[in-house]
Amino acid sequence: MRVLQLGPYPPPHGGVQTNLVAIRSYLLGQGIGCPVINLTRHRLPDADDVYYPNNAKELLRLLIRLKYDIVHLHVGGNLTTRLLGLGMACCSMPSAKAVMTFHSGGFPSSPEGRAIERRSFAGFVLRRFDRLIAVNGEIEEFFTRCGADRSKIRLIYPHVAAEPPEDAVLPEPLRQFFDSHERVLLTVGLLEPEYDLPLQIDVMERFPDVGLLIVGSGSLEQSLRTLIQSRPYAKDILLAGDVPHAATLRAIKDCDLLLRTTLYDGDSISVREALHLGTPVIASDNGMRPAGCDLIRMSDVDALQSAIAHRLSDRTPRLEQRPASEENVKAVVNLYREMLG
After folding, report:
1. Is-contact 243 171, C-beta < 8 A?
2. DSSP string covering 289-320, please?
3. Angstrom distance (rounded) from CA 68 to CA 129
4. Structure confidence at residue 62 (pLDDT)
5. Nearest residue to 126 (alpha-carbon basis) of 94, 98, 95
6. Sign of the dihedral through C-alpha 341, 20, 322, 196
7. What pTM value is reported for the model?
8. Cβ-contact 151, 118 below 8 angstroms
9. HEC states along 137-184?
10. In sequence order, what are the residues at sequence separation of 6 or more whose Cβ sits closer than 8 angstroms to the Cβ of residue 263?
11. Confidence of residue 248 (pLDDT cuts 50, 70, 90)
12. CB within 10 Å: which end of the chain, N or C, has fewer?
């Protein structure tokens, strides 16, 4: 068996990337070949069976040239026409089975998601896949609404337990930020409107000398830097940009709280990683948070303040670290084997 994966490949290291890398690492550990085609604008030289096509033409050439029995497309965000076209191409490859994982947890309830039904182009494309992997029950029902046969749909959670390597350290300026603050709050995600980061920045006014570390990149980076600099407590907020995954895990483990305030969100990998590492989580209630999170209403600064104050004053021991498990990755590999009979 040889599996070709298509999707975002780190850096940066987000939820979809984490799932893709975990599957690849497991397959390589089993002696199974697993080339990857990166679908983001991030470019590196091709190396170690990871390819970075510059355009759609190069991508299609790779689809045709590479050898594989399974092609696995990972999709996050919206089902754009471009991605649906790529899905059609994957399903048209001779002598290969096609599977797609749809990682965008909140998409089915969005206006775009609700507008998709069986007779749509998206429905037509989704039904062509040999298997469809849903990361939550809402996406599972979305596939069914699009006309996909239930026998082809599998519910497999994307999160994989991870912990920082023993030698993982905080790079500068993160280390100095931790050293200069007795309590540190952390948020990990994209710098995009749906993550409601101004809410976190505003609430820090109510917690003098507590630090807020923001890890991630995105289109709002400059406007967020300007917003932070306009605040008298700017020294207590660090916009760190993208950070290597091992160092991010170290920060999650060492911080006092992980914040996940969103307007639109699925099953966040950073939330799962924090719970696994025993770090308390305060998150906007999106109807699909895992057990163990402190849930607040979306865009409610008073609720966020109250939840942070409660957690910072709570002197009970931290949550117990959960045992690591590869069951979700094994379920994906077992699905590959099922597809090949």
Report:
1. yes
2. PPTT-EEE-TT-HHHHHHHHHHHHH--SPPPP
3. 16
4. 97
5. 98
6. negative
7. 0.76
8. no
9. HHHHHHHHHCCCCHHHEEECCCCCCCCCCCCCCCCCCHHHHHHCCCCE
10. 193, 194, 195, 196, 284, 298, 299
11. very high
12. C
CB atoms within 10 A of CB 306: 14
Distance between CA atoms of residues 32 and 26, nearest Å: 9
In the block, residue with structure tokens 């994906």 = 332
Dihedral of CA atoms 235, 238, 239, 243 in degrees, nearest 10, equals 160
CB distance 96 to 68 below 8 Å: yes
Quickly state the pLDDT bin for 91 (edges 50, 70, 90). Answer: very high
pLDDT digits (tens, 9 = 90+) for 286-298: 877 888 899 999 9
Q: Specify the pLDDT at position 324.
A: 58
Separation between Cα atoms, residue 158 and residue 113, nearest integer Å: 20
The interaxial angle of helices 327-339 and 15-29, nearest 10 deg, is 70
Taken in order 67, 71, 76, 79, the sign of the CA dihedral is positive
Question: pLDDT at position 205, please?
Answer: 96
Buried-state track 178-191, b at ≥16 Cβ within 10 A, e below 16: beebeebbbbbbeb
Q: 3-state class of 153 per DSSP? A: strand
Kindly compute the dihedral angle of the four CA atoms of residues 319, 262, 326, 150, in this order, to the nearest 10 degrees. Answer: 130
By three-state DSSP, how is residue 151 classified?
A: helix
pLDDT tens digit sequence for 143-175:
999 999 999 999 998 876 677 888 889 999 999
Compute the distance between CA of residue 186 and CA of residue 274 in angstroms, rounded to an integer: 10
User: Is the distance from CB of 6 to CB of 71 less than 8 angstroms?
Assistant: yes
Indicate the SS3 state at residue 140.
helix
Q: What is the three-class DSSP state of 155?
A: strand
Q: What is the pLDDT of residue 317?
A: 64
Give me 4's structure tokens: 């070709």
